[in-house]
Write a structure and sequence with these properties.
Length: 403
């Protein structure tokens, strides 16, 4: 039986998740030792509050996943403190992969701070452990007590102003309590029939989640959209929120979605994409409001749904195309995994944006094949089978220019 080394973990943290230090894989290298500062009473209050959230009937029974959890009475937390807490938990894991931002600016920087947007399918815990059959990934690498810290570490390192997530099944016990205390406004919309509910000891349905920093934006309008296909309601959803930038006063619509998976459902995804575009045309008043759409589209660039977004009257472009030499090609992969059915290497995740209203200042480079390694994703190094995408945007300086 693995015994965690003696270290100073606050009692509330232990009561939340038990021992967070899981056994290291025999071949997994150690992280470099980090000096971890004492977190003091504020961290104890943080994890005590989370422990109460975990034991609440609302979470255990999944009675109303659309209702916002009440974190108004919880104290704010310092992101550096939370990052140190995560790194302490992850001391037995290999270090994070290093990824560089690529400068994509063609002109001088604008006169406002860029808006950082992060897109990520984080892999639902119930699916990772119970359904996805990652045959090259040790089960201990998927344990939530550590994997959640890897996810949080990635978010805290890149510090997005807007965060769009898919396959979120630990919203109420992890992401909403923590991110709300980091200054984010949080919204969650679960799938009506989440496959997570088929897994024993699940944590409720998975869905899409959207987070934005309240000191940067004011919420003007929010819409939860259940996507349709062939006039039928489907199991896929989207969130669209119109935000007002506090610095510039300009409006920006952010949408997050997760389209139907699997080969053979191409027409279905195409219909879902058309429905989402129609909704967004209405929300953006016919493209008068700049738009950013983040999502796992489960579609390669050769699919019809991709072409619909490329040719939409909303005048969209895919931000990660700009990393290619000609600015016309998507990355070779955004997900890379090995299942019982074989190895899957696909480009499925995108950040679309209004190309005449917004500029892409930079984009986070993807992991190399060498970094990902022969066993692919997820792994002890990386918590999801999908790579996170991160872009810095700025508003076009001519607000009257046509979108």
């Amino acid at each position: 039986m693995f015994q965690s080394p003696a270290r100073c973990l606050c009692p509330a943290l232990r009561s939340l998740s038990g021992s967070l230090l899981l056994p290291r894989s025999p071949g997994a290298p150690r992280r470099p030792h980090r000096a971890v500062c004492s977190m003091g009473n504020s961290t104890s209050r943080l994890y005590s509050a989370l422990a109460k959230t975990l034991s609440s009937g609302a979470v255990s029974q999944h009675q109303d996943c659309l209702e916002q959890a009440d974190s108004a009475q919880l104290d704010p937390i310092d992101p550096k403190d939370l990052l140190e807490e995560c790194q302490m938990v992850l001391q037995k894991r290999p270090p994070r992969f290093h990824r560089n931002f690529v400068d994509l600016r063609k002109n001088a920087a604008g006169n406002h701070r860029p808006i950082r947007v992060m897109q990520w399918n984080i892999l639902a815990q119930a699916l990772g452990e119970g359904k996805d059959n990652f045959v090259q990934c040790p089960m201990e690498a998927l344990k939530w007590e550590e994997r959640k810290c890897l996810i949080l570490e990635e978010i805290l390192e890149y510090k997005p102003d807007v965060l769009c997530l898919q396959e979120v099944d630990h919203y109420f016990d992890t992401f909403e309590p923590l991110l709300s205390r980091l200054g984010y406004q949080c919204t969650f919309f679960p799938k009506p029939w989440s496959p997570c509910l088929d897994v024993e000891q699940n944590n409720g349905p998975d869905g899409c989640a959207l987070f934005f920093l309240k000191d940067r934006f004011e919420l003007i309008n929010s819409a939860n959209i259940r996507l349709t296909a062939m006039k039928l309601k489907t199991n896929q959803v989207a969130i669209a929120q119109t935000l007002k930038c506090n610095e510039t006063g300009r409006l920006l619509c952010i949408a997050v979605t997760h389209l139907k998976a699997r080969t053979g459902w191409e027409r279905f995804r195409s219909a879902q994409g058309c429905d989402l575009l129609q909704n967004l045309k209405s929300i953006t008043q016919g493209a008068n409001i700049p738009l950013i759409i983040c999502g796992d589209f489960n579609a390669e660039p050769t699919e019809e749904v991709y072409k619909e977004f490329s040719n939409s009257s909303l005048n969209l472009n895919s931000a990660y195309k700009l990393l290619s030499p000609d600015g016309q090609s998507e990355p070779p992969y955004t997900t890379w995994k090995i299942r019982t059915s074989g190895e899957c290497r696909h480009t499925l995740d995108y950040i679309w944006y209004s190309q005449h209203a917004l500029n892409v200042n930079s984009a986070l480079g993807l992991l190399t094949e060498e970094q990902i390694g022969p066993n692919r994703l997820p792994s002890f190094n990386y918590p999801s089978d999908h790579l996170s995408l991160v872009c810095d945007f700025s508003f076009n300086q001519d607000p009257d220019r046509l979108l």
